[in-house]
């Protein structure tokens, strides 16, 4: 398993800090999961199981039985951004069709787009943590534009090494404010 590189650690610390506040604590109300939730995650088995279990615990606070639809693809939500080097040519239409079909079959509108760090696929494509967040927010805009009525939240799962892992809710407004100050 790879380690979070120092540059990404620094980016995380800055974006988690009070001034930026992009990485926020996950509150049960961050996303209404009462009718189920779709998790668009990376296929990385070391991170997927942690993310799935985390959302199962969150959903139990809102509804029983818990209804979670996994939608794993390599690099997770980063694959839905048109500018992402992780997106293959002509793949976006296919991915959006998968989401539309999923909504038709399940009626689940709540969708969580995940990026995790470190991510092997992102690293191989030369994508650092800051770029991954930009692609994730681009993906949210694309999905919301193409699939009216869908409810999308962005989360990130960080593996700090030595067994320390945590999921965070990402604030698009705080991200845009941080980017504007740079």
**What is the overall shape?**
globular
Structural class: alpha/beta
Strand order of the largest sheet: 1-6-5-4-2-3
Order of SSEs? HEEHEHEHHEEH
Count every beta strand, where a strand is a DSSP E run of 2 or more residues: 6
Gyration radius from CA atoms, angstroms: 15 Å
> Overall pLDDT, averaged?
92
Low-confidence region ranges: none
| Helix percentage range | 40-55%
**Helix count, per DSSP?**
6
Strand content: 15-25%
Largest sheet: 6 strands, mixed
* Distance between the amino and carboxyl termini: 32 Å
Overall description:
The chain is of the alpha/beta class. Helix content is 42%, strand content 19%. It has 6 helices and 6 strands; from the N terminus they run αββαβαβααββα. It has a 6-stranded mixed sheet with strand order 1-6-5-4-2-3. Helix 2 links the parallel strand 2 and strand 3. The chain is globular and about 40 Å long. The N and C termini lie far apart (32 Å). The mean pLDDT is 92.
Write the SSE topology.
Layout: H1 6-16, E1 23-24, E2 37-40, H2 45-60, E3 68-70, H3 91-106, E4 110-117, H4 120-124, H5 129-146, E5 151-161, E6 164-170, H6 172-181
Parallel strand pairs: 2-3, 2-4, 4-5
Antiparallel strand pairs: 1-6, 5-6
